[in-house]
Amino acid sequence: MNAFAIINIAKKQLDMDEDHYRELLVRVTKVDSLRKMSESQRLAVVEEFKRLGFKVTATTKKLPVASKPYIRLVHALWKSCHRKGVIEDGSRHALRTFVKKRSGVDDPDFLTFTQANPIIDALKAMEARG
Questions:
Q1: Which has the closest alpha carbon to 109: 95, 121, 123, 94?
Q2: What is the pTM of this model?
Q3: Is it the case that residue 60 has pLDDT exceeding 80?
Q4: How far apart are alpha carbons 19 and 30 in whole angstroms?
Q5: Mean pLDDT for the chain overall
Q6: Close Cβ partners of 110 (under 8 Å, ≥ 6 residues apart)
């Protein structure tokens, strides 16, 4: 998320009126507008909001579950290999890279059944080593 959005969320979370908000901007950065600020100045404003009690919460945006069972199996095997320590990076990005190298498809969710079979076999072999 960018600093603009975080600052606006913090302003609402702290229930800050426009006058106090502008005073805070000037006090922290000597500038009264987010658009006129550099990125480092915006980050300083975010830090000030945190000091005043703003809590940054991570979004829990979950990706939809794949409708095809073989794609769900690819994701499950990848997570299992990560839990067993066979692979270091269990992220979705790392899985995409793995699938791209093996099949040429950019995302495991776009695999056909025939493209997914060798990937599933490779992941099962890797899981067995763990």
A1: 95
A2: 0.53
A3: no
A4: 15
A5: 89
A6: none
